[in-house]
Design brief:
alpha/beta; four-stranded parallel beta sheet; single chain
Length: 67
């Protein structure tokens, strides 16, 4: 399954993203700053236009963010 993890650079979000990846899911992290652990989209979770574009592809969503 394709899964977007919002907050994938944080402690909990990072662990969730790595776990999902280990389980065979296609994980994309939505982060403030990119990392090299998995595919990331850099952006602001408050940017509704960008979030709508990302979610249009379907799949699952995990949100582990603080605003």
């Amino acid at each position: 399954m394709r899964i977007i993890v919002f907050g994938a650079n944080g402690m909990a979000g990072h662990m969730v993203a790595l776990y999902l990846q280990e389980q065979g899911h296609e994980v994309t992290g939505f982060v403030k700053r990119k990392n090299d652990m998995f595919l990331c989209i850099e952006g602001n979770a408050m940017d509704t236009k960008l979030v709508k574009e990302i979610l249009a592809g379907g799949g699952g969503v995990e949100s582990i963010t603080t605003i």
